[in-house]
Amino acid sequence: MSEQGPWLVVGLGNPGGQYEGNRHNIGFMVADLLAERVGGKFKAHKSRAQVLEGRLAGQRAVLAKPMSFMNLSGGPVVGMRDFYKSGVDRLIVIHDELDIDYATLRLKRGGGDNGHNGLKSITKSLGPDYLRVRAGIGRPPGRMEVADFVLRDFSGAERKELPWFVDRCADAVESLMQDGLERAQSVYNS
Predict the structure, then answer these.
(1) What is the sign, positive or negative, of the torsion defined by CA atoms of 153, 156, 158, 160?
(2) Helix H or strand E segment including 38
(3) Distances in Å between the alpha carbon of 29 and those of 4, 43, 47?
(4) Cβ contacts of residue 18 below 8 Å, gap of 6+?
(5) Catalytic residues
(6) What is the CATH number of domain 7-188?
(7) DSSP, res 153
(8) pLDDT tens digits, one per residue of 39-64
(9) Which of 188, 173, 150 is nearest to 57 (CA)?
């Protein structure tokens, strides 16, 4: 079944202008860059997501940004999977990762949610065996609460590196689709 379905590339974030530059929205930032590469615009979809269908890395792909809040991402992702008839083996989720240093990238399939509410919601709906592009945002400074940290914009120093980092994450998505997990990991997990 899934061989026929397109790749589903889901960038996680929160909808609304006030969240645009937040660390938690790096998945949306990468999805937006991939949309530029595809040469299209996101449109509302009945799955409660913004979607763009096109070709990425020479393959059929659906780029998506769930329009639910982060902790409810599973519903829209299941809706898209059902609509496009793609298997979990062709799902790539791009998300922020606290336990990786800022501007560091890790690719993997499966695993836990590490307290990430978007992953928790998707895993509850689909199981854990999807591909992940883990965009490192680092840990909060001092005693700052995690929720406050992820819902803050990137710092001035981080913003200088952000375009490069978003570009690298987008390249990693295309590499996952084209080269497979092991080859992509050998390039991007170093």
Answers:
(1) positive
(2) helix 26-38
(3) 28, 16, 20
(4) none
(5) 24
(6) 3.40.50.1470
(7) B
(8) 999 999 999 999 999 999 999 999 99
(9) 173
**Nearest alpha-carbon partner for 63 in 82, 84, 74:** 84
Contact yes or no for 113/121 (Cβ under 8 A) = no
Alpha helices in 43-190, H assignment, sequence order: 74-84, 117-126, 146-150, 156-179, 181-188
The pLDDT of residue 190 is above 80? no
Whole-number Å distance between alpha carbons of 46 and 109? 27
Coil vs helix vs strand at 151: coil
Percent of residues, the chain, with pLDDT higher than 90: 97
* Cα separation, 128 vs 4, whole angstroms: 21
Question: How many helices (DSSP H) and strands (DSSP E) are in the chain?
Answer: 6, 7
**Under 8 Å between Cβ of 9 and 62:** yes
Q: Is the dihedral of CA 52, 13, 69, 129 positive or negative?
A: positive
Strand ranges across the sheet with 7-11: 43-45, 49-56, 59-66, 7-11, 91-97, 131-136, 105-109
Residue 74, token pair as written in the block: 């599973």
| pTM, full prediction | 0.96
Q: Which helix (H) or strand (E) holds 63?
A: strand 59-66
